[in-house]
């Protein structure tokens, strides 16, 4: 066996220690892309208590950066990276499509592009989204600092190049889900999993809980544990009518999320139908502790481990197809955007909706409200 192959296998075995964080199906790919120092850095970050989602993103970005650098420079990623390499990264990923049509050498070289595609690391046909480039530069900067080094990420040349490149690439912002899962769409999905099989009970409770809890992210849904569910006193269907029927209520402790930390002790409330569906799933599946949502094999056996965030997305797309909807138009993020869109359509004040969605940015949350108000308002109906 060659020394190179030995090194890859050794790194793969080391990455096995992170199997609760890094997806197992990417272990071999990352082992081939990363260096020994890279693996040591990831293990150190995991031991320091870095969040699983953040570590996954850093590992993915580091693997991409190593592959790109190898193809673009015939060498491994240097630490710290010189400013010239950072500028090259921007030039390869953010470029002007019109200039590319006139000059094929503009942007990412063909050899680099083909190499990334062969490794299934590049899928886009045009310039990268500016958010992706900024995120990878941020990951690069974070990893540089964790190695005790200083980079050139705050230099004026990089900032200027990035600003000009974003303007030149002129790539429109892509929605994470082309269509929002609003109440009417959710009703069709619930009908598609309206049976009494274990998989139906699971998917029904998952969709209801994810939507009604403010449009939880797929990573939050996958990470939900029984210990995070707290029964609350029943509440009235109509808070202003003491004669209205009582509804079951529970709170969900979220701990650390994308926009919060474990110290925030954030929680959201579930009321009524989602609570009943969630408790029915747990009772029938015999789940009393640990992960709430788990994989079910073809024989109906419930796994002990939590499902992956990717599985949440797959469940939604599968139910979309069964409901006669185009699954390419929807993703798990559609539950999040759909919640805010539905809240806007029903006239729920934005601050009240944000208490449930836990958006920290009013600007970001308000986008869904602005879209709904424009469609319902008179301004776009002057000529009809």
Mind sketching the topology for me?
Elements: H1 3-15, H2 27-33, H3 36-47, H4 52-73, H5 83-93, H6 97-102, H7 110-118, H8 130-146, H9 156-169, H10 183-192, H11 198-212, H12 218-223, E1 229-236, E2 246-253, E3 267-271, H13 273-285, E4 294-296, E5 302-306, H14 309-322, H15 333-345, H16 350-357, H17 362-376
Antiparallel strand pairs: 1-2, 2-3, 4-5
How would you briefly describe this protein structure?
The chain contains 17 helices and five strands.
Q: Which architecture name of the largest domain does CATH use?
A: Orthogonal Bundle
CATH class category label of the largest domain:
Mainly Alpha
What is the fold named in CATH at topology level of the largest domain? hpI Integrase, Chain A
Terminal Cα span? 73 Å
State the order of secondary-structure elements, H for helix, E for strand: HHHHHHHHHHHHEEEHEEHHHH
Q: Summarize the main sheet.
A: 3 strands, antiparallel
């Amino acid at each position: 066996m060659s020394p190179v192959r030995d090194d890859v296998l050794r790194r793969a075995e080391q990455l096995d220690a992170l199997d609760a964080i890094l997806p197992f199906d990417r272990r071999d790919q990352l082992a081939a892309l990363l260096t020994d120092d890279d693996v040591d850095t990831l293990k150190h970050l995991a031991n320091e208590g870095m969040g699983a989602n953040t570590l996954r993103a850093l590992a993915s970005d580091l693997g991409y950066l190593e592959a790109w650098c190898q193809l673009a420079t015939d060498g491994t990623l240097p630490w710290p990276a010189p400013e010239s390499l950072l500028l090259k990264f921007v030039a390869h990923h953010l470029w002007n499509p019109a200039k590319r049509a006139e000059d094929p050498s503009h942007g990412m070289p063909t050899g680099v592009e083909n190499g990334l595609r062969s490794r299934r690391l590049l899928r886009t046909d045009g310039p990268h989204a500016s958010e992706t480039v900024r995120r990878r530069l941020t990951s690069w900067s974070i990893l540089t600092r964790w190695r005790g080094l200083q980079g050139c990420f705050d230099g004026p040349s990089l900032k200027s190049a990035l600003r000009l490149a974003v303007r030149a690439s002129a790539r429109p912002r892509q929605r994470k889900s082309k269509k929002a899962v609003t109440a009417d769409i959710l009703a069709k999905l619930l009908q598609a999993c309206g049976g009494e099989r274990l998989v139906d009970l699971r998917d029904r409770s998952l969709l209801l809980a994810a939507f009604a809890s403010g449009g939880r992210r797929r990573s939050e849904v996958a990470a939900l544990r029984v210990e995070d569910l707290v029964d609350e006193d029943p509440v009235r269907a109509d808070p202003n009518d003491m004669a209205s029927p009582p509804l079951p209520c529970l709170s969900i402790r979220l701990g650390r999320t994308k926009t919060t930390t474990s110290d925030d002790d954030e929680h959201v409330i579930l009321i009524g139908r989602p609570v009943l569906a969630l408790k029915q799933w747990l009772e029938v599946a015999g789940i009393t502790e640990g992960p709430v949502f788990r994989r079910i094999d073809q024989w109906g056996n419930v796994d002990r481990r939590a499902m992956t965030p990717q599985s949440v997305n797959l469940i939604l797309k599968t139910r979309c197809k069964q409901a006669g909807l185009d699954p390419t138009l929807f993703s798990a993020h559609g539950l999040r955007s759909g919640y805010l869109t539905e809240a806007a359509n029903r006239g729920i004040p934005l601050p009240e909706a944000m208490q449930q969605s836990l958006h920290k940015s009013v600007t970001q949350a308000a986008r869904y409200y602005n879209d709904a108000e424009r469609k319902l308002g008179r301004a776009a109906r002057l000529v009809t």
